[in-house]
Amino acid sequence: MSVSVRGKSRDSGRSVFTDRFGAFAECLLTGVWIALAALPLVTLPAAFAAGSRHLSRHLAHETSGWREFTADLRAAVRRGWLVGLAGWAALALLLADIAFVRAGLPGGAFVGAVGVVAFFVLVVAGLRAAARWSPGSSWRALLTGAVRRTLRDPAGSLVIVCGFAVVAASAWFALPLAAPALGMVAAAALAVERRGAGA
Predict the structure, then answer these.
(1) Those residues with Cβ within 8 angstroms of residue 28's Cβ, 6 or more apart along the chain or in another chain
(2) CA 199 to CA 190: how far, in whole Å?
(3) How far apart are CA 199 and CA 197, in angstroms?
(4) Vertex 34, ends 32 and 37: CA angle to 5°?
(5) Which of helix, strand or coil describes residue 15?
(6) What is the average pLDDT score of the chain?
(7) Residue-level pLDDT at 192
(8) pLDDT at residue 186, rounded to an integer
(9) Alpha helices for the chain (secondary structure H)
(10) Disulfide engineering: 80 pairs with which of 21, 76, 127, 145, CB 3.0-4.6 Å?
(11) What is the DSSP letter of 4?
(12) What is the pLDDT of residues 89-129, one digit of tens each?
């Protein structure tokens, strides 16, 4: 990481503004890469894992580009597609809960509220796990730890949820803007996990 001295980055001589704008632009580019990699749908967790690794390398001023991103994506998708499949199954259960609420059945509101909260916990935990993924990592172990951190760190989890709010607002304004905004979600998850790790 570069150190700021009088508006300059000590190790590169670039201004702090240049570094921060560069990081912002890299987030947007990463969001587009994540969107492309997630087109098969079940590859969504692997896409976020590869995106987080790319952003992490960029922040460390290491070489990182499309080639490294795709290499990470291939490694993450080997087991990550099962996580993606489980996520879509969870979404199907949420939609069933919502149908249960709309049917006006007794206890429907409670069941629906529990379903929505559980779904958001799983989504945030999935993103936190993706932010800590590295080649050779066990998705099961990552998710187990991520669920605990999601529940124990509600402030950090809320930051990630706010990242989704940015995606939703971007999509509402103009649907194509949702793709680069995905990079903001990856950056939020990475920042929260680094903060939690004391990095």
Answers:
(1) 180, 181, 183
(2) 10
(3) 5
(4) 110
(5) strand
(6) 88
(7) 96
(8) 96
(9) 16-37, 44-59, 66-102, 108-132, 139-152, 154-173, 178-197
(10) 76
(11) E
(12) 999 989 988 888 888 877 778 888 888 899 999 999 999 99
